[in-house]
Amino acid sequence: MIYLDNAASSFPKPPEVINAMMECMKEYAGNPGRGSHALANQAARVIFQARQEIAKLFGIAHAEDVIFTQNTTESLNLAIQGFLKPGDHVITTMLEHNSVRRPLEYMKRKYQIEITYVSVDSKGLMNPQDIYSALKGNTKMIVASHASNLTGSIIDLHSIGEFAGKHGICFLVDAAQTAGVLDIDVHEMNIQMLAAPGHKSLYGPQGTGFLYVHPSIELEPLMYGGTGGNSESIDQPKVRPDRYESGTRNTVGIAGLLAGIQFIQKKGIANIRDHELQLTRKILHGLNQYERIKILGPDQLSLRAPVVSFVIDGLDSTELGFILDKYYQIAVRTGLHCTPLAHKASGSSDTGAARVSVGFFNTEEEIDIFLYAISEILKEM
Fold first, then answer.
1. Which residues form the Aminotransferase class V domain (predicted)?
2. Of the four, 50, 135, 240, 323, which is 20 to 30 A from 113 by CA?
3. pLDDT digit of tens for each residue in the chain (381 aa)?
């Protein structure tokens, strides 16, 4: 199988990740923070080390401001529902995944928050000035995807973060498609909250993710319950990360995530991005040979994450995915991609799209096979 669906979840995982998870299950799978015995202590140390490595990778000053979640969606829900208050105004974009849009629309219905969706062009590119123009007196948050999961288009975090800081607005970034591929520094980019998955370009397992929360921001917890400390109190503890981590953490998954981050540090983010962009360039060049194929997203490679979505005139994207899977053993994502406004902007709401997304372990030979398969499918039409 040639796996080209890394924007959904990276595969395969580095051997170090699998080994770290197996070691945890065999050697120290105690409950972190729920006892003082050796296994619980070892589990707690691994989780703390993972917080430290995440902090180091993203320019986070204090490891306790890294909150572990099960995925980016949970992180975004904690950030959005925990921060916004009735009457607040939020600026966001048409590029957002439903993991941003649905919580915002829920808050709009329940708490009468206001939402402004900033437009993007047909390539998925946004003018930061449109965000600046949307500012209101009650604007409390800007939330934006670093890169679209449909078009791959990248936004300028530096300029938006500078604007947010100047006006005292919380800047929440969804880094689902960029954490581990693009450099992100929360201090330099003035990011107050950063949501990211462990299972994509950080090469950890599914069921892992995190939310960075700036020390100045207090969130209402999404869940309440046991945290391993302050057990005598009926109230949720104030101390981080306990306040936002009720219940047992996914120690096995976090051990794998730690190994995934160490793998990235060893290879270097710049090297990973260069490899993935080289493959992306090859895909774009190959698909551009055909008049029947419409490629979504920016033409300029530097404005694109390693994601290529496209539409073949006269062929349903779901059918294309079925053909690639059954006859060529190639895995791609097809259909609608949980981002309806981005589909609307790109003109693909009715057709959906096929999405090819590469990872560090993909090769040029695999891309050649994919492009050959596309050429054969087009010949049969």
1. 2-370
2. 240
3. 999 999 999 999 999 999 999 999 999 988 887 778 988 889 999 999 999 999 999 999 999 999 999 999 999 999 999 999 999 999 999 999 999 999 999 999 999 999 999 999 999 999 999 999 999 999 999 999 999 999 999 999 999 999 999 999 999 999 999 999 999 999 999 999 999 999 999 999 999 999 999 999 999 999 988 877 777 787 888 889 999 999 889 999 999 999 999 999 999 999 999 999 999 999 999 999 999 999 999 999 999 999 999 999 999 999 999 999 999 999 999 999 999 999 999 999 999 999 999 999 999 999 999 999 999 999 998
Write out the residue limits of the CATH 3.40.640.10 domain(s) in the chain.
15-267
Q: Where are the alpha helices (DSSP H) in 238-357?
A: 251-267, 269-287, 317-328, 340-346
Q: How many CA atoms lie less than 13 Å away from 29 in the CB half-sphere?
A: 11
Domain with CATH 3.90.1150.10 in the chain: 2-9+269-380
Buried b (16+ CB within 10 A) or exposed e, 327-355: ebebbbbbebbbbbbbbebbebeebbbbb
> Which two structure tokens, joined as six digits, stand for 150?
């449909």
Q: What is the CATH number of domain 15-267?
A: 3.40.640.10
